[in-house]
Each structure stands twice: as structure tokens, then as C-alpha cells.
Amino acid sequence: MSLALKFLSVYFFVTELSVPVNFIDEGITMDSKKSDRREFLKRGAALAGGVALGTTKTANAQLEGPESFQRGTDEIVGYGKRSRFVDSVRIPHGGRASPDAFGLDFHIATPLQDSVGVITPSSLHYMGTTRGSFIPDIDPEKHRLMIHGMVDNPLVFTMDDLKRMPSVTRLHFIECAGNRSNRRHTTIQETHGMTSCAEWTGVLLSTLLKEAGVQAGADWIVAEGVEEVKGASSIPMTKAMDDCLICYGMNGEPVRPQQGFPLRLMAPGFEGIFNVKWLRRIKVVDQYYMTYNDFGHLTQDPATAALGYQIGPKSVITHPSGGQQLPGAGFYEVSGLAWSGGGSVARVEVTTDGGRTWFDADIRGPAHKMAHTRFTFEWNWDGSPCELQSRCIDEIGQVQPSRAQAAEFWNQPPDQAPRVRGQDNSIQPWRVDGDGSIHNAIA
Length: 443
Ligand SMILES: Nc1nc2c(c(=O)[nH]1)N[C@H]1C(S)=C(S)[C@@H](COP(=O)(O)O)O[C@H]1N2
Ligand SMILES: [Mo]
What we know:
Strand content: 25-35%
Bound molecules: ligand MTE, molybdenum atom
Radius of gyration: 25 Å
Helix content: 10-25%
CATH architecture of the largest domain: Alpha-Beta Complex
Largest sheet: 5 strands, mixed
Order of helices and strands: HHHHEEEEHEHEHEEHEEEEEEEEEEEHEE
CATH superfamily of the largest domain: Oxidoreductase, molybdopterin-binding domain
CATH topology of the largest domain: Sulfite Oxidase, Chain A, domain 2
Mean pLDDT: 86
């Protein structure tokens, strides 16, 4: 059939069902999808009976039209809105209500179970706050960033000043050091929801520091948010001069208030707490200063340290994951996210037999430095109970540890159940029961 004819028949088919005419585009691409599927079946990856049957049936049956059409509103025209059939939401993390009775927000977790690709929508980005936050309501016209201390020229920047400077746009994850899995968690939102990935736009901190002229012996900076006491972190000058960003943009619009509007520091790959929100001051100093946030970073000795700086290589299977349900045996694309504070993700391995055999997963899209990276693995589930895990290897060769290895690193006595006392980048096991239900398999 000629393309024109095909086009025509799709058109009539479509008008009959009274769905919008732009559906035609999809009618044409559907053919290429079909041939993919045939290709796929030839390769021997048989789909589950139920799924295949469902597909055949749909092809013969009348397709449903929309329930109704939405009348346009200024709100939808102005800022847009997702479908009422999409209900993925953030949840309070760690059992503490957000907002609480006083309107304070605490930690809030991203619904990673519903994630696709690598970008977290801004409205679903996790929120991390030390000891709770009222979200500052900052007028960007009045906001200033001061850089002072051991510099030749102390500087004060307006938002407009910053936007005149050379900018960079980069994909980076943030992860709270409190993003740790335990056996009481049931879903990935509970085990891993305190990490998100966004496209950040701003000025390199090195650009501003060079403008100010850093003096000899100035080995640290202290970055401060508007809350003074708790919103401050000491960061080594080497990191500040390397890849830290002063961000005003996030996913194509101004940084959201919960993420630090109008200005935040991004310290790629460092624990969440270093990414100071509502940034207003950077003091260049000669030594590590003890701030509220720095408590816990005083020593790198695993016997006493609560925290590190750089996030280790980490990954988690987002689908299928805890609380989800497989409809039956057959083909599934296992999909997950991997990231590392050490650079880009080089490789991800997946096991479906609880760690006895490991296979290379496919890396989807370019693996950016210190960014969530999507991996997938083609899996034929035979319907018997099994255990899925993933492990990340980053570009500097670091390998994501097992839970037992991470517990040993943080000095958990070997005769006790593995508990990760410090930063937890351990492998997450998901158990698949014979009925297709998925469960957290931490012992
Ligand atoms: N000013 C300020 N910055 C802050 C915090 C804060 O409470 N105040 N919380 C930190 C913590 S604990 C984390 S994990 C990250 C979270 O960033 P997000 O809320 O944008 O996800 O911000 C960090 N920056
Ligand atoms: Mo955090």
C-alpha cells in the first residue's frame, strides 16, 4: 500500500473513533513498532500469554475514545497540568509528617517507581532539609550573593549580574546522605526516594572565585543559605574550583522554591547537604570551619565518621520494584537508575538469581558525570521465585558494594545482621514471588 493510501485509511479509522486528528501521526509510526515486535519475537523472547493475547484482541476490537474532552482554562494555557489519570506523588520520608502542624517541611521523597528516563520533574524532585524548613519567599530583585573572606576583591552579585556571566547547563543528581534502605521499607520511594536528577543552569563557581581573586592559603569555602546557622557547609577549594555551580535554572525554568529559589549551590557528586539552597554568601577561608551541617564530616575514619563527602557508585532497579506486581511470566524490560559521585556510570550489571550470575545491562542515553543514568535489561521471567539486583561500576572503576560489604566498611560487627551505619550505596535486592509480587529482600 502506498503511504498516501495508508495515511487515508488511518485517517478514516481515526475519525470514526472521533479522537483528535493528530493521532494520525501515531497511526503511521505504529507500523514500525509492530515490525520491532516481530523482530523481537523472532529472537525468541516470547511475551507472556496474557500480554500477547491482549495485543491481538486490541487489534481486532473497537478502540475506546477519550472519556471526555477538557475545556481550556487559563491555568492550563498558562502553566500546563498533567493528566488527571497520572497520580504519582512525593511522600514524607522517614516517618515524619510534611508539612507538620506548624507548616514546616521535612524530608520528602521522589516517586522513583514511576520514573522514566533520567530527569526528575521539578515538582517531583525530592526535598532535603536539615531540621525542617519554612520555604523562604525570596524576591530575586532583592537577592544578593556575597563572596568575601580571603579574596582580593570582595564582590556582591545581583541575580541580573549572575545572568550576564558565561553560563553552563548540566545534568546532575543530588542525593541525601539519609537515602538508606532498610528491611522495613516496602517501596523504592522509601528505600531510595531521597535522590533526584535535574538539568541545572548557572555560573561555574570558579568563574566567580577567579573574579574575586582567591588568595594564597585559602583552601576552603563556607557556603551559606538564608537560614544562617543550618544552611551552611564547608567545601574544599579544589572542589569549589572544579565543577561547583551557582544555579538559577532547573529543568528549563527558575529553580523551584523548595530547591533553593532564586539561587543554589550545586556540588556535583557530593552529599546532598553540601548543595546549599537559598545561597547568599560564600566566605573564602583558610581552614575547615565547623558549621551545623559539617557535624559528622569531621573525620573519614569509618569507626567514628557518620558521613563522607563524595557519594559512592549506586544503582537501583526502579521497575519491577517493591510493591509492584507482574501480571505473569514472560518478557519484561527491567529498568533502573545508576549514579556515582566519582564521575559517570561506566557499566551496570544485573542479576536475576540473587547474585550468582551477573549480566551487562544496556546503558540508555549518554552517561553524564554525576547524573542519574538509565539502564535496562531484557528479561524473560519463567514464573518461578527469584531475586533481582543491580550493581554500578563507575568510570574510575569503583564497584557498588553488597550490603554485607558496606556494613563491614562501617564497622558493623560480623555476627550481627548487616546494617549500614554511614553513607549507604549498597546493592538493593528485590524478591519476585511466584505470584508476581515484588518485595524488598533485605534480610
Ligand atoms: N539552605 C539550605 N540548604 C540545604 C538544606 C537546608 O536545609 N537548607 N538541606 C540540604 C540537604 S540535607 C539536602 S539532602 C539537599 C536537598 O536538596 P533538594 O531539596 O533540592 O533536593 O539540600 C541541602 N541544602
Ligand atoms: Mo540531606
